[in-house]
Amino acid sequence: GSLFAIQEAVDGLADRLLLLNAPMKVFLRPLFFKLIFKVFTGWIDEDDKWYKESAATYGIEKDYNIFKYIGWLPRMIELLMEIARVRKLTPGIKIPTIMYYSKYDEMVSLASVKYLRNNKNIKLKLLPNSGHLYYSPEDKKKVINDFKKNVIRNC
C-alpha cells in the first residue's frame, strides 16, 4: 500500500501520509525464511507472538503443490519494478509525511531511508521492537498516536 500511497501523493491526490515500512529497498533477512517455514508448517509456539501475528497476516492458503507458488514469480518481478519506479518519485512528495521503519523488518531494508531522508516533507521514525508483520505493543501505540495526531485531527 505504501507504494500506491506515494504515487497518489505525488499525483496530488493526498494531503498527508503516514506509511509503514515503505519498500524503497528490499532485503530478505534469514528471519523471513524462518517465518515462512514456521507459518507454512504450522510449527508456531503458542506464546510466540511474533510468528502468531505474522501467520494471521498472511492471506494465502497453504498448498503443498509447490508448482502453484511459481506463479508468484512474475508478481514479485512486477513488485521489484514498481519499487524502482516509485523510488524515483520520492523527491516529489510535497505533503507532510511520516514514514515508520521497523528495526527488525524481515523484507524491507533500513537502507530504504537513504531515498527519503533528503526530502524535508518526510519525517522518518524507527520502530525499535517491530518487524514487517509484527508490531510490538509499544510500537503500535506510537503509530496509533501519530495517526490520531497527524491524520485524524487534520481531516
Structural commentary:
There is one protein chain. The mean pLDDT is 88. The longest helix is centred in the middle third of the chain and has 16 residues. The protein is an alpha/beta fold and 155 residues long.
- Helix proportion: 40-55%
Tell me the Rg in angstroms.
Answer: 17 Å
> What is the approximate shape?
globular
Termini separation: 20 Å
Structural class: alpha/beta
Strand content: 5-15%
Q: Enumerate the strands of the largest sheet in spatial order, edge to edge or round the barrel.
A: 1-2-3
User: Counting H and I runs of at least 4 residues, what is the number of helices?
Assistant: 5
Quote the average pLDDT: 88
Query: Sheet with the most strands?
Result: 3 strands, parallel
Report low-confidence residues grouped into runs of 5 or more: none
Order of helices and strands: HEHHHEEH
Strand segment count: 3
**Assembly category:** single chain
Give structural attributes.
3-stranded parallel sheet; 5 helices; 155 residues; 10% strand; 3 strands; alpha/beta; globular
Topology record:
Elements: H1 2-10, E1 17-20, H2 30-41, H3 49-57, H4 72-87, E2 97-102, E3 122-127, H5 137-152
Parallel strand pairs: 1-2, 2-3
Q: TL;DR of this structure?
A:
By secondary structure, this protein is α/β, with parallel strands linked by helices. Helices cover 40% and strands 10% of the residues.
